[in-house]
Amino acid sequence: MKDVYEYAIIRVIPRVERGELINAGVLLYCQPRGYLCARVELDEARLRALDTGVDLDGVRHALGAYQRSCDTDSGPLTREPLGSRFRWLTAPRSTIVQTGPVHAGLTADPETELEHLVTRLVRSP
Predict the structure, then answer these.
(1) Second label for 83, Cα 20 to 30 Å away, from 49, 71, 94, 104?
(2) Residue (of 43, 10, 19) closest to 123 by Cα position
(3) What is the DSSP annotation of 105-116?
(4) What is the signed CA dihedral for 98, 99, 101, 106, rounded to 10 degrees?
């Protein structure tokens, strides 16, 4: 049986005024299965190609916040329901690290779907 899931790409836009970006992760939420996870893979060379002066430590910290926010045991949003966390994480931002629009799909295995999305949308061919 397949369930509905929602996902958003986590993007890094080192110079917002230029609009150039790289995909650095995927955030996936599957309410029927109680699943929320962010998978992040930063290609630092590609990011430096867009902006040689980018603050890599700051970007890494911001990307890590997405992962920590999904943690059910010790993350900063542990008291919030998973759906609220997902909505908070995908809310529009004017920062270097932000999510793209939310998309939906069907899956029987959210973890496998997350890995598929990261491979397809984040990793360089």
Answers:
(1) 94
(2) 43
(3) EEES-HHHHHHH
(4) 180
Mean of per-residue pLDDT scores for the chain = 93
Q: Give the Å distances, CA to CA, from 111 to 39, 120, 122.
A: 10, 14, 16
Give the least confident one: 43-47, 91-95, 116-120. Answer: 91-95
Q: DSSP per residue over 47-96, as a string?
A: HHHH-TT--HHHHHHHHHHHHHHH-TTTSTTTTS-HHHHHHHHTS---SS
| Nearest CA among 24, 40, 32 for reference residue 6 | 32
CA pair distance 83, 69, nearest whole angstrom: 12
Q: Which residues of 78-88 are buried (b: 16+ CB within 10 A; e: fewer)?
A: eeeebeebbee
CA angle 116, 72, 66 (to 5 degrees): 55
- The stretch 80-95 carries a mean pLDDT of 90
pLDDT given at position 47 = 96
For residues 4-19, average pLDDT = 94
CB 16 within 8 A of CB 97: no
